[in-house]
Amino acid sequence: MPVLPTAFVVTAEYDPLRGEAGAYAARLAADAVRVEPRRYPGMLRGCFAMDDVLPCARHAVADALVDRRDGGMRRRVADPARRVRAAPGLRGPPAGSSVYAGAVSPLSRSEKRTLLARAPLFAGLSDQEIDALFQVTRPCSLQPRDELFHKGDAGNQVYLVIRGTLKALTTSEEGDDVVFSILSSGELVGEIGFLGTPTRTATVSAITESELLTIDRRDFLAFLKSHPDASIKLLTVLADRLKRVSELVEDTLFLNLPVRLAKKLVHYASIYGDEVEGGVRINLKLSQEEWGDLVGATRESVNKQMRAWTEEGIIGADSGFVVIRRTEALEKLAGCAID
Asked: CA 321, CA 316: separation in Å to the nearest integer?
């Protein structure tokens, strides 16, 4: 292989190509090319036969390589909508269709406009103002585990969740995740990197099938300048995010795992909980690893604690959802009540 200029090379980390990508990265490193691993969940969606997987994956990797142009580095990354461009001879979805065949019907334009108008940040706007704002938005659809953006990416857009659930997280060099927050319908995503630093401060990925509206920096700043009340509401959103991160740090440093986990369960029961026979079900399907990411613990530790609570009758499970069966006991441990 010829000696290459120093640059970043983005490779894909998924099972069918992990070994090949690792070997390729090692060869590049031997030629003094710096390598930055990046995950692109969902890139293989839309492949219709197993023999198509590797060609599709190789094409996706090739499409994500970094170029050096005019003496500088320029990185091409996958579009947030995560559509896969078919390699030559690769069978793909019909023209004009999404590569994601979800079970949930897509929202109509009128439904998206209605949900935009209901977002707290845009409450109080007239119909004409909502229409004008909606005209500058673009739709974005994600499947579970798809990344909306990655930590370090350029922050040129802000997003509004209109349906679904996402998580904001950061990953250590060892591969451990810490989840800062869960984001759902009506919440703004990407406002910190958008208004502050020029790059994303966290990775955001979908937990469930999600639909968002994308607003470019120029259009959103113009909106804030003409609507001072919205700017004040945005400050409230930023203050709330900072409060959540501060609480996460404090809880991790000063509280033991049972208390931290109890607080999270009570918190999400207040947001996503429904009363069912025998308790309160948290309508947020998270794996034990994801619950661990939320409280800064390992999957094994969370599994052990939840199993102990299940044996005590404090919690239970219903089709993958956590059900709080003895709310008083969990609230007492958490030091707060389900709203």
From this structure: 8
pLDDT tens-digit readout, 40-79: 444 333 333 333 344 444 444 443 333 333 333 333 333 3
> Which is it for the CA torsion 270, 272, 276, 280, positive or negative?
negative
Tokens, residue 81: 């909508």
Q: Which of 189, 187, 194 is nearest to 154 (CA)?
A: 194
The whole-number pLDDT of residue 224 equals 86
d(CA 249, CA 178): 11
- Which of 74, 100, 130 is where one domain is finished? 74
CA 324/CA 269 separation, integer angstroms: 8
Q: Are 309 and 257 in contact (CB under 8 A)?
A: no
What is the distance between the terminal CA atoms of the chain, rounded to a whole angstrom?
A: 62
- Position of tokens 């590049």? 28
Asked if residue 246 and residue 260 are part of one domain, the reply reads no
Range of the structural domain that residue 219 is part of: 109-252
CA–CA gap between residue 212 and residue 230 (Å, rounded): 19
Q: Are 84 and 56 in contact (CB under 8 A)?
A: yes
Residues 259-270, buried b or exposed e (16+ Cβ, 10 A)? ebbbbbbbbbbe
Model pLDDT for residues 190-249, shown as the tens digit of each residue = 887 667 667 888 999 999 999 999 999 889 888 888 888 888 888 888 888 788 888 878
**CATH code of 288's domain:** 1.10.10.10
List per-block mean pLDDT (blocks of 10 residues) for the chain, which spans 339 residues. 43 43 63 57 37 42 36 34 31 31 64 86 84 91 93 89 93 86 90 75 93 91 86 83 82 90 95 92 92 92 96 93 95 91
* Other CB atoms within 10 Å distance of the CB of residue 74: 10
